[in-house]
């Protein structure tokens, strides 16, 4: 049966781990062979948001949005427990846990410690939707959780950062945050809704389900791999030139990812959530919004600071970790209510 399931997967799904690490390697090689390519592409920004990375994330998120029945998002309010759990983990548990880890491992490197704390405070608002989709979590629940946590960033990020960093008032780049949510979540959602409505009307439900959705699934995988190539061509040089510092910064982040994920996954099971409800809770609770963290680190500490450096390490290690968490989710699916 396992063999049959494997053979039924598409080419990208079968060897996703291989493609991800190959894309990271290609990005590193491109960055080394063409050292001016990464900075040139990375400089193409609007309101602090990288346009090349935005395109890659758009192609990752759009296939998710085009599948959603938007009435399902409203139905999530009828069972608010998963949403409340993400708010609990993202704002009452993870920030203080990350701050403790950062102090434990990086207290002799205060700038790196500050960068790790900035990463830990902000929950992910974009790419986590892709990982939730790959892990077969409920897409509508994921979208709602991301939307609510994006709003909470605006309210809670400044006071939490000020308290945990001890640097006074910490500004949040509201334009950058609003732009990232709009580009990475809002735009794919609107286009997904419109395209689904028009295509079903013109081509029929069967064509949409059997042809278009299959094509968009491959689009999402290509978006992920393209984003990785870009990201590692931009910043992969850090790994090659300062591997010890990257490793040092990675230790508390790796512990944070797996610990918060494990706790959220266990509590979700304990509270009787279904697998589809528990998966976005666990993944959204454990992931970080590196766009916001990088922007704040640069604003508060400067572009050449250790804090800014630490926030850049976040996305470099996040993808392999999220892939591992997806695999753990799928392997534990059977223990949840209604899990196969």
Structure keywords:
340 residues; mainly alpha; Na+/H+ antiporter like fold; disordered N terminus
Characterise this structure.
The protein is mainly alpha-helical and 340 residues long. It has one domain: Up-down Bundle (Na+/H+ antiporter like fold), CATH 1.20.1530. The protein has 17 helices and 2 strands. A two-stranded antiparallel sheet has the order 1-2. β1 and β2 form a beta hairpin. α5 runs parallel beside α9 and α11 packs antiparallel against α12. The two termini are 13 Å apart.
- Report the principal-axis shape: globular
| Secondary-structure content class | mainly alpha
Extended strand count:
2
Number of helices: 17
What share of the residues lie within helices? over 70%
What is the N-to-C succession of helices and strands?
A: HHHHEEHHHHHHHHHHHHH
Indicate the radius of gyration in whole angstroms: 19 Å
| Straight-line distance between termini | 13 Å
Mean pLDDT across all amino acids? 80
Report on the biggest sheet: 2 strands, antiparallel
CATH class: Mainly Alpha
Strand order of the largest sheet: 1-2
Number of domains: 1
Strand content of the residues, in percent? under 5%
């Amino acid at each position: 049966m396992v063999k049959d399931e494997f053979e039924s997967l598409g080419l990208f799904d079968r060897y996703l781990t291989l493609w991800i690490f190959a894309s990271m390697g290609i990005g590193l090689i491109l960055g080394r062979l063409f050292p001016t390519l990464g900075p040139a592409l990375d400089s193409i920004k609007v309101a602090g948001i990288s346009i090349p990375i935005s395109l890659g994330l758009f192609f990752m998120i759009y296939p998710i949005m085009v599948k959603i029945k938007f009435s399902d998002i409203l139905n999530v309010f009828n069972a608010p427990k998963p949403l409340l759990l993400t708010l609990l983990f993202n704002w009452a548990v993870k920030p203080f846990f990350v701050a403790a880890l950062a102090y434990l491992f990086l207290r002799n490197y205060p700038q790196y410690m500050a960068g790790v704390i900035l990463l830990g405070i902000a929950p992910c608002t974009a790419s986590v939707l892709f990982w939730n989709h790959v892990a077969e979590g409920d897409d509508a629940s994921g979208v709602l959780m991301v939307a609510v946590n994006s709003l909470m960033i605006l309210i809670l990020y400044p006071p939490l950062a000020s308290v945990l960093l001890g640097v006074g008032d910490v500004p949040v780049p509201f334009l950058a945050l609003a732009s990232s949510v709009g580009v990475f979540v809002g735009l794919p959602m609107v286009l997904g809704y419109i395209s689904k409505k028009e295509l079903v009307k013109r081509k029929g439900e069967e064509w949409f389900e059997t042809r278009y959705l299959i094509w968009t699934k491959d689009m999402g995988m290509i978006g992920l791999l393209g984003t990785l190539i870009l990201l590692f061509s931009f910043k992969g040089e850090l790994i090659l030139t300062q591997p010890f510092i990257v490793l040092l910064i990675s230790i508390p982040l790796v512990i944070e990812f797996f610990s918060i994920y494990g706790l959220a996954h266990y509590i979700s099971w304990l509270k009787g959530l279904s697998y589809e409800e528990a998966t976005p809770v666990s993944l959204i609770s454990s992931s970080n919004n590196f766009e916001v963290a990088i922007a704040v680190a640069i604003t508060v500490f400067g572009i050449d600071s250790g804090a800014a450096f630490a926030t850049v390490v976040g996305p470099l290690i996040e993808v392999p970790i999220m892939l591992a968490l997806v695999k753990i989710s799928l392997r534990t699916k059977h223990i949840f209510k209604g899990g196969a």
